[in-house]
Design brief:
By secondary structure, the protein is α/β, with parallel strands linked by helices. The chain has 2 domains: 13-261, Aspartate Aminotransferase, domain 2, CATH 3.40.640.10; 263-332 and 373-407, Aspartate Aminotransferase, domain 1 (Alpha-Beta Complex). The chain has helices at residues 13-25, 35-46, 60-68, 85-93, 112-118, 138-148, 199-209, 227-230, 249-259, 262-280, 313-322, 339-350, 371-376, 390-407, and strands spanning 51-55, 76-80, 97-101, 123-126, 151-155, 163-164, 167-168, 175-179, 192-196, 286-288, 295-296, 301-306, 328-329, 380-384. The longest helix has 19 residues, at 262-280.
Length: 408
């Protein structure tokens, strides 16, 4: 926990230095100052994997991973009810079917028992999400996946330097996906990285993310074909289907600088959460997301559940802001309750010729039920932790305390 009152910068001096190196070097098609290669290598190593593939965002990461495992039409991928739409969107982009599993009532991460109920012969992957910065219970997930030959993609967009039973989050699945979007622990404005240790899978993911170029490997920094090959009119560039998900070198430079201070960034979030926790501990009607004893939470957000029926979510937020709070967020709708899914179900039913890969397979998501998360979700408060000054974080906790006193 940080105790110093000096604010930390939103963008590190190293990031600025690395950006200037890129600008001084200039932009070239087949050469660079190596920021992307350094980011991929150092990020993978920091999170317990061998290979990194940096891409444009944390949705492209998961799509590339699904493509690397040949997941497509007719396949099913299990995702949790509590997640950002991106998790399910990557499945749809692969022409596969998102199957939604409920959450644990205390940790709000994916419930392994409901996952077991959702596995079918068509299930090819599971994407457990480290929601709010907390790892799911990974051991039974990995065991079940091994039994059914399923791919495991850790969606860790909200979890940097979280730990599960002594293992850093990101080191356990076949793939792990991280986001560099602006709200995340470390950012370069937007972007993401996919990490893994299987060289063949990493190579296939790289090709899926970079236009299927024939010469690409898992080695760091590869995003183009060497000029001596590319200039030849008979050279066959594209040997597999791939998309253009490349992360620009200048964005990689920013991300590299932020990676080099990732411990400080995570500690700042954990400090904010500790201030909130001191306040919440004295309140019997706000129940925080449970962190099991052998887990370390990285607190992308500090989330609590309102248990009093007479405390309205919107009224609580208004009073918090009135007393100096910075506001807070509600939890996302259960992913299967987002209108996109009911609309998609209707489109498939009325225009099956446009969706032959979904016809007869895609469920009507209005009939999907995840009762635990559906009951909890409207009462969730997600408090911000992205402050860069200990004093500001402390002030937010004081505003929360005053808000609780008002409703108590």
């Amino acid at each position: 926990m940080l105790t110093e009152s000096t604010p930390i910068p939103r963008v590190s001096p190293k990031s600025r230095e690395y950006v200037n190196r890129v600008l001084d070097y200039g932009f070239h098609n087949c050469s660079s100052p190596g920021m992307l290669a350094r980011l991929e290598k150092e990020f993978a190593a920091r999170f317990g994997q061998r290979f990194g593939i940096a891409v444009a965002n944390g949705t492209a990461t998961m799509h590339a991973a699904l493509m690397a495992y040949d997941i497509g039409a007719g396949d099913e991928v299990i995702v949790p009810a509590y997640t950002v739409f991106s998790t399910a969107a990557a499945v749809l982009h692969a022409n596969a079917i998102p199957v939604v599993a409920d959450v644990d009532p205390d940790t709000w991460t994916i419930d392994i028992e409901d996952v077991r109920c959702k596995v079918t012969p068509r299930t090819k992957a599971i994407i457990p999400v480290s929601i709010c910065g907390l790892s799911p219970d990974m051991d039974p997930i990995l065991e079940l996946a091994a039994q059914h030959n399923m791919l495991v993609i850790e969606d860790n967009a909200q979890c940097f330097l979280g730990y599960y039973k002594g293992r850093v989050v990101g080191s356990m699945g076949h793939f792990a996906s991280f986001s560099f979007q602006a709200s995340k622990h470390m950012t370069c404005g937007d972007g993401g990285i996919l990490i893994c240790s299987d060289e063949e899978l990493a190579t296939r993911a790289r090709k899926a993310a970079v236009l299927g170029y024939s010469t690409l490997t898992a080695e760091p920094g590869q995003t183009a074909i060497p000029e001596e090959l590319r200039c030849n009119p008979t050279f066959q560039r594209h040997t597999s289907v791939g998309w253009n998900y490349r992360l620009p070198e200048i964005a990689a430079a920013v991300a590299l600088g932020e990676l080099e201070r990732i411990e400080e960034l995570v500690q700042m979030r954990q400090t904010c959460a500790a201030f909130f926790s001191e306040v919440i501990d004295a309140c019997d009607w706000l129940i925080p997301q449970k962190t099991p004893e052998d887990y370390i939470h990285s607190y992308w957000t500090y989330a609590v559940r309102i248990t009093r029926d007479d405390v309205d979510w919107a009224a609580l937020r208004r009073k918090f802001i009135e007393l100096g709070g910075d506001g807070f967020y509600g939890a996302y709708l259960p992913v299967h309750r987002e209108p996109v899914f009911s609309n998609l179900s209707d489109h498939v039913r009325t225009h099956p010729e446009c969706y032959p890969h979904f016809d007869g397979r895609l469920p009507d998501y209005r009939n999907v039920s995840c009762p635990i998360w559906e009951e909890i979700q409207p009462r969730i408060v997600m408090l911000k932790t992205n402050y860069f000054d200990v004093n500001v974080a402390r002030q937010q906790a004081e505003a929360l305390a005053q808000t609780i006193d008002f409703f108590s």
